[in-house]
Design a protein that fits this description.
The chain is of the alpha+beta class and about 90 residues long. The chain has two helices and eight strands. The strands form two sheets. Strands 3-2-1-5-4 form a five-stranded antiparallel β-sheet. Strands 6-7-8 form a three-stranded antiparallel β-sheet, with no helix packed on it. A hairpin with a 2-residue loop joins strand 6 and strand 7. It is globular and about 35 Å long. The two termini are about 20 Å apart.
């Protein structure tokens, strides 16, 4: 659903609300992902666009009902990418 940085670990938050931890960087993970389906919404979170439930201002509610917040400087880029993805 989304990937977040927590201390020196990266946490993969899955649809069933389970988590998987890995010791790496978000930039390394993002480089391995399909950039058409994932986006950085702030410096510590990458979301999977297909798992967005809805967007409300600076908040994205994901399919697992977790709220993820967009940084103001990335808002336009995130909205544009979501719009293109939902097409």
């Amino acid at each position: 659903v989304f990937i977040e940085k927590y201390q020196k670990n990266i946490i993969f938050n899955l649809l069933d609300k389970s988590i998987v931890k890995e010791r790496t960087t978000l930039k390394n993970i993002y480089a391995e992902l399909d950039s058409d389906k994932f986006i950085f919404i702030n410096k510590g979170i990458i979301i999977n666009l297909k798992n967005i439930k809805y967007l409300d201002g600076l908040k994205i509610v994901m399919e697992n009902d977790v709220n993820c917040y967009i940084s103001r400087d990335r808002l336009k880029e995130v909205k544009d990418k979501i719009t293109n993805f939902w097409g």
